[in-house]
Amino acid sequence: MKAIILKISKYREKDLIYTAICEDRSISFKVKNGQDPKSPYVWMNNILTFADIELIEGKYKYPVLKEAKIISSPLNGNDGFDYLSGIANLADITLNAVEEDERPILFDELESALASLRSVKDKLSCVAVYFARCLKKAGMEFVVDKCVRCGSKKDIVAFDMTEGGFVCRNCLDDTIERDLTPNQLKFVRYIFSVNDYFNEWDDRFTKEDKISVLMKMKRFMLDVNGADLQSFDCLL
Fold it and tell me: For 23-82, what is each residue's pLDDT tens digit?
C-alpha cells in the first residue's frame, strides 16, 4: 500500500516507529533495526518520503515492516532552507490539522502540495495554501470575500478565525484583534480561495506578510486543539 511518512521516532535500542498516512488509513509501524545506518530502509528516514509498503500484522503493539519500495523522496541533495522548512511544515500540519483517524482525507492534498513544493518558487505560499485546505477539510470554513457579521464587502479590517472570517470596520469591536495589515488580509483571501498552488502573485506579498498570516493560523491551531506547530518556529 502507498504511504507517506510523517514522523520517525526511536523505539527501544535499534528499532524505529514510523507514523504515516495511506489512502484509506493512518498507521504507525515498526522497522526492525531501523536505526542501523546499514538498514535496507534507511532511505525512509526522511519525512514525506512516499513509499509502497507491506506490513506484517498480528499480535504486536505495532505492525512490522515486511518490505518497502521507494516511490519518491522529498530530497534531492541540493535543497535550500525554504524547501526543507516547507517539508517540515507540511508534515506538521498533516499530523495536527485533523484527528489521527481522519488523516487519510488529507492524503491526496498532501501529495499535490508536496509535488508543488518541489517546483514552485514561493514555498511559503505553498505551505499556506495547504494549511488553508487542510482546515477546510477539517470542517473549518472561513468567509474571506465579505464581512462574516454583516455581509459587507467594503472596508474589511480584520480576520478573526474564531469568528469565522473577515470583519469590516463597522462590525469591529473589542473582541476582535486587528493584527493584520491590508496586504496581509489580501494574502488571507488568496490562500483560502486560490485554485492551485502556483502563486502568480508572489511579488504582491512580502515574506513578512506570509509569515504573519501563517503564525496567526498556527496560534489558531493551538487555541482550537492544543496543537503546537513547532516547525513554524524556524520561519521567524
Answer: 999 999 999 999 999 999 999 999 999 999 999 988 788 999 999 999 999 998 778 999
Give the helix ranges, DSSP H, for 106-166.
107-119, 123-137
List phi, psi (to 5°) of 235: -80, -20
> 130 pLDDT exceeds 90?
yes
Using the CB atoms, write b or e for 186-197: b if 16+ within 10 Å: bbbbbbbebeeb
Structural contact between residues 132 and 141, judged by C-beta atoms closer than 8 angstroms: no
pTM, rounded to two decimals: 0.95
**CB of 88 within 8 A of CB of 47?**
yes
Bridge partners for 16 per DSSP: 10, 31
What are the phi and psi torsion angles at 9 (to 5°)? -130, 145
Are the beta carbons of 218 and 224 closer than 8 angstroms?
Answer: no
Sign of CA dihedral 232, 5, 195, 105: negative
Which among 48, 195, 217 has a CA at the least distance from the CA of 124? Answer: 217
Q: Would strands 26-31 and 2-11 be described as parallel, antiparallel, or unpaired?
A: unpaired
Strand partners, 52: 2, 69
Could you give the 3-state DSSP secondary structure of residue 228?
coil
152 phi and psi angles, rounded to 5 deg: -70, 145
